[in-house]
Amino acid sequence: MKIAIGSDHGGYTIKEAIKNYFCDKSISFKDFGTNSNDSANYVEFAFKVANAIAAGEYDKGVLCCGTGIGVSIAANKMKGIRAALCSCEFCAEMSRRHNDANILCLGGRTINSDKAIKLTEIFIQTSFEAGRHFYRIQDIKKIEEKIFK
Ligand code: RB5
Predict the structure, then answer these.
(1) How many domains does the chain divide into?
(2) 7: pLDDT confidence band, cut at 50, 70 and 90?
(3) Which structural domain range is residue 26 located in?
(4) How far apart (Å, rounded) are the C-alpha atoms in residues 57 and 130?
(5) Among this protein's residues, is 64 annotated catalytic?
């Protein structure tokens, strides 16, 4: 599995912690920035990660900002992206099982690094259940076809 990861300054600390987890577990990833705690625009990094996933270059993404809200709003503007803002284990699991989310969004000012790593681990280890949920995702894709002509 190849993971794309990015953050603004608000999510920088948990992004670095998640990267350490990926290195420990030999999980392949690319960091799309930002590269410090200096103020940065979350839209830039959300776009880079979402674009790489929409293009099929990476399997899943992790995006972090202060709350996770900005990156989730921005990433979800892109066709084929299902970005899920999660702050608990249950939501991280269900975002995969029911929503087939392809980007996990996290808030560096709402959860600590240990929780961010735990939610990331759940997110990348959980499969989509398909079944009735498959048809709901298909309905979302039909809306995308109308919007992105
Ligand atoms: C940056 O201060 C903050 O607005 C950003 O990280 C994020 O929380 C936006 O949704």
Answers:
(1) 1
(2) very high
(3) 2-147
(4) 23
(5) no
